[in-house]
Amino acid sequence: MQHQTDTRFPDAAAADYDRRILTLVPGYQFAQSLLTATLAQALPPQARLLLAGCGTGNELIALAGIGPQWLFSAVEPSAGMLAAARTKAEMAGCEPRVTFHQQLLDQAPQTLHDAAVCSLVLHFIADDGAKLAFLQQLAARLSPGAPLLLFDYQPDGLPVSHYQHWLQSAGHSLDGAREVIERTRSNWHPLAAQRARLLLTESGFTSPQLLCDALGFRLSLLYRRA
Question: In what residue span(s) does the Methyltransferase domain sit (predicted)?
Fold first, then answer.
């Protein structure tokens, strides 16, 4: 079996992730609220959801709040991130409905789910076969017709200067903004829209429906093909 690229964050990154993400991802809070509202309309009262890269649990807590009978598989390779998500779930009282998996997606059980969320993961995975393998692993854990909410960085030709200006408006210094931009160039693997559609189709999903786009950070709705 081909394993996906190990995209785990250092454990220490969990300490201030919730603060930093608001200064790194334009439209983050709006995308999260739109993601939650979309699944609230799409799923029945009882459903099983997969969070592929649950991070510190922001989506988990929001979704658990609107689906009081929903069950969750929270997959996250970073011990620090998963610990933060577990603490939030315990505080919110939804921890009994969550199965936590500290591992990469391809190592997690192949239980079928009624929906999946993959937020800010895909652009960290190289397009050398690993990105396709990750998407195939997602599809293998979804029932036919199940929705996938995919939040990913896909600038697709948008000038990076726009993102740099936003970073400065979010509180980064000029040097700090340039450092973030350099990381996107050296460590991130964003896809052009045409390439993304090709990989998603090949891995078993429908064409993505764009729900929102903030300087290349795109929330899309897809479905596992029957």
Answer: 52-145
The domain that holds 20 is classified in CATH as: 3.40.50.150
82-98, pLDDT tens digit by residue?
Answer: 999 999 999 999 999 99
Number of domains in the chain: 1
pTM of the model: 0.92
Partner residues linked to 149 by β-bridges = 117, 221
CA atoms within 13 A on the CB side of 207: 2
23 domain residue, yes or no: yes
Q: Is the pLDDT of residue 15 over 80?
A: no
Judging by beta carbons within 10 Å of its beta carbon (0-12, 13-18, 19+), is residue 140 exposed, middle or buried? middle
Rounded Cα distance between 197 and 31, Å, is 20
CA nearest to 117, candidates 209, 220, 5? 220
Decide: helix, strand or coil at residue 83. helix
Quote the tokens at residue 190: 């964003």
Whether 200 maps to a domain, the answer reads yes
183 falls within a domain: no
CA-to-CA distance for 121 and 7, rounded, in angstroms?
A: 8
